[in-house]
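Data availability (excerpt). The following record was deposited with the supplementary files.
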Amino acid sequence: MFLLGIFTKQRGSDRGNTLGLFAGLVSTSVLGDLPGKISPALSLHIGWSISFTWFAFIGAATVLLVGVWFRTPPSALERANERAQQAQAGDDVPLALRA
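Predicted structure:
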């Protein structure tokens, strides 16, 4: 989600972030055969194996790809623009303490 926020301006929403995190968790769990470790009957034997060092990359890529599908709501973009304008006002009081 951090990369989504850094590299895009109008992508990512609460729903997309939640689904992305869930999809990343599921993909990493399947790669590590977590269901098979819980119960042999749930083993997914995908037929190939990759090193565990790739799990983090694949999980992060999954989160990023799912999150890109969701557009940031216009109301969130408007609030962000308003806060940016307030910050440019030059006032020395932090935004959280302004009235």
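Summary of structural features: The first helix runs from residue 2 to 7.
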